[in-house]
Fold:
Amino acid sequence: MERRFSDEVLAVAGIDLEVAEREIYAFLGPNGAGKTTTVRMLTTLLRPTGGSAWVAGHDVVADPSGVRRAIGVALQEAALDPLMTGRELMLLQSTLHGLPSAEGVRRSEALLDRVGLTEAAHRRVGTYSGGMRRRLDLAAALVHEPRVLFLDEPTTGLDPVSRQAIWKEVRHLNDEGTTVFLTTQYLEEADQLADRVGIIDRGCISAEGTPESLKAEIGGSHLELRIAEGGAERAREVMARFGELMPERDGILMVLLPHGASDVAPIVRALDDAGLAVESLDLVKPTLDDVFVAKTGRHLEGEAQHEAPGTAPQEPPVEQAAPA
Structure:
């Protein structure tokens, strides 16, 4: 599947991916990598300029109506009317999906309760916090009980409590059988939720697999040690017997562990036998950040924004070029 906006702008460069039924698939990448463009194509909001794609058994070009009936979509910027109440918006969504009135009321009330908005359902959406709007958008995307749910950066800009609430609901939906396609900038989010992860960079898939398999590709765990002053040279000799030494960082000695955590105790005993005092010790396992750096050559900027959730990141020019 490919999307070109002009001769100079290739937003998605022929990606090839497959998501299994009942799977949570995390699409991981920086701003401008092509995540949102891919979601817009898969949800029929944007026509591919090359290749093909099927969602829930429906061709996104030949049968867009079939795709829309089978999916729920919560985009990064929720298009919620601020003058409507939460309850009014849910009932409108149920009507647009053709649900009978009584069934629409039943599902709307059940979903409002499920996302913790029953007490706020009578309030206008314009009074909702960012986390409340995201939860309402999620509930609206579920009113017709879709087989596949697309979530485009659902927790960007949210505080930790709101983020955890979204994660809990995603897990619950998946346990009930919903397939989830999740785009995110947050490595922790992908690691916590995803059965499999796809890393997209500059419009291409650079890596794909389970979080654990991707981490295993770049090597095993390593041990970081700080030795009492004067003992570093002797400590290096001892540690080298157990694994390959890594470059030091700020006085911390590091060694790769061929057998993982089971190597820690023998190293500590050997250092003790050599009369060396260990001031600090840390077993470090590979992270998705290590994977991202190894595959793309840079860190994911979303992790820095993770600490300051006040403002959602803006889409770059390539993503903004996509028509509605």
Summary: The CA atoms of residues 228 and 277 lie 6 Å apart. The radius of gyration is 24 Å. The chain has two domains: 3-215+296-310, 220-283. Residues 307-324 have pLDDT under 50 and may be disordered.
